[in-house]
Request: fold
Amino acid sequence: MSEASISRDCTAIVLDGSVSGPDGERMVQFILDTGASITMIPGKVIQKIGSSTIITARSVHIQTAGGTVDVDIVRVDSIEIMGKTVKNIEVASFDLPTETRVEGLLGLNFLKHFRMTLDFPNGKLSLV
Reply:
């Protein structure tokens, strides 16, 4: 089991992680978003890890706080958060607004691989 400390009165849960592709690995700060069906990573990170040429034949419409946008779907080699890894995972190439101060959203397509527990009274997030 992997655990992270969270604040009982937090407005967002931010997790450090890494994203890997054919050309390497980059660190990304993610907001945990159980309302997002797919994990979102900025285009510049996707390009740096070499996954920008592996865009699938589809793009999808996603609803954001700013409205509906079209995003490209890209497969990355892996995402690692809290010592837990999902390999060969699709992500949306999307740049969050700069005022969010993080780079990505950690969505359900990553989280569904684990049993997640949010224990606010004890200030713990766990992935099993």
